[in-house]
Amino acid sequence: MYYGTLKVYEDFIGVYCRVSSSTQKIEKQIALADAYLNTQNISKVKVSYFLDDDVSANKLALKDRPKLLELLEKVKLGQIKTILVSHRDRLARNFYEYISIIKVFYEYGVNVVFTSTGQPEFSRVLAMESLYGIFAQTEGQNISGRLSDVRKMYPTNIFGFIRLGKRKETTYKPDPKYLRDLKSFFYSVIKTEDVNDLYKVFMDYKTIFKNKKFEDLYKYLHNPFYASRLKTQYGYDVLPHVEPILSFNEFEEMQLVLDKHRGSLLNAISKSTNNGLIHPLCSICQTKMQFKSSQLGESGYYVCRNRKHSEIKISVEEYNQLISSQLTMIIESISTKKIKTDVYESLYSLKVGYEQKLKTLERELKYIQKMITDMIGPDGRNIPKELITKSRNIKNLISMTNVELIQIEEAKKGVNNVVHMIKNRLPGYMTNYEVNFLAPLFFSTIEIDEDNLIYHVTFGEYIEERGRKSDIGA
Fold this sequence. Notes:
The chain is built from 14 helices and 15 strands. The chain is flat. It has helices at residues 5-9, 27-39, 66-76, 88-91, 95-107, 126-153, 176-191, 195-208, 214-222, 248-273, 316-332, 336-376, 385-429, 432-442; strands at 13-18, 47-52, 82-85, 111-114, 161-164, 171-174, 229-232, 235-238, 281-282, 290-292, 301-303, 313-315, 443-448, 452-457, 469-471. It has 3 domains: 5-151, 3-Layer(aba) Sandwich (Rossmann fold); 167-273, Hect, E3 ligase catalytic domain fold (Alpha-Beta Complex); 275-474, no CATH class. The longest helix has 45 residues, at 385-429. The strands form 5 sheets. A 4-stranded parallel beta sheet has the order 2-1-3-4, with helices on both faces. It is α/β, with parallel strands linked by helices.
């Protein structure tokens, strides 16, 4: 009793919820969706929940909202036909993103239900839905701007200041413990003559401020709060509740110096603070090695925490290069034949299990339907609700089992394409992003000794030529 793919999915529902911070409760949006399902007498058997918790639509692009992407993928596969969402701004606060999402819904015939009170119904007219999208973006920008300005005016804590009072009575006084050093730091930057002088100031004050990160030092220099100012779209506003550490004229002088060397400084900070793709172990004591920032502009490095093994060290730059080259070799050595054999065997085993389950469910359904038919008989007796409910539940389980069987068939069709991409295309097209993602997937751990990197490969049984070591410095 196989159903066609579209028939199986025709009444599937996706519930999408999103909150932008950990302080907000996503349960409220879930409750609104559940209330709608209950009032419409919709069984949750065919309902899937897609929850982006602590995901800001103002700060993060569509590609960084994993559950929304998953929902859209299900829509494109024809596996979701109705979407429940509390408010339009849960989908997007950017007008263009909202329209791109709506066009997907139109293309695949998806209905959208907004569960919040007062939300206009989903319109099939793009011009009308676009107008609603503009409102969502404007509201989002206003909220984001207001919250951002408040946080900048009244930060919970800020290095070098003591916060006094509460709410609108809050004031900020320079912390005597850091006042002298912060003033000296700012003035030293103003007096630098070239980028090397600037690097030296950063190195000196990183130590003075007890190993603050280079990124933190850079942020302090750019923050007008230290000059009792707030930067807005109209310029710099005075913050009367803040006692300044340097004058606004001095702050502007400092910005001129930083603007002159911005590119070089940021590149130097990035190089010095970048970590390795995978945190390595010392091959002798099997403990995690310690990452240390180097001189500004030079690569950071890993060294064993045990002083007896201090000779075991490697720069992050060399370490990442070795990992990238080894990863390419491993991908090229994968046995595609063995992967396909194992995947097909696994899928076949799943298929057999679901087919057996389907036969059992069909027998149960046939038996219950016979009971119902016998009960109806010539006298037309009422059928017990329990039997009707059981029949409906079994039908839903049959539908879900058919979905699983269809997905198995789809997976079988895609195996060759995936294997071909991994084997033949991936090694030549790996970007830094892909290496960051793939390295932890292929290597469970990496050990370092004086002369070698020792790789522990996650999918070792699929590698024909197992390059497990690479020479350091080779």
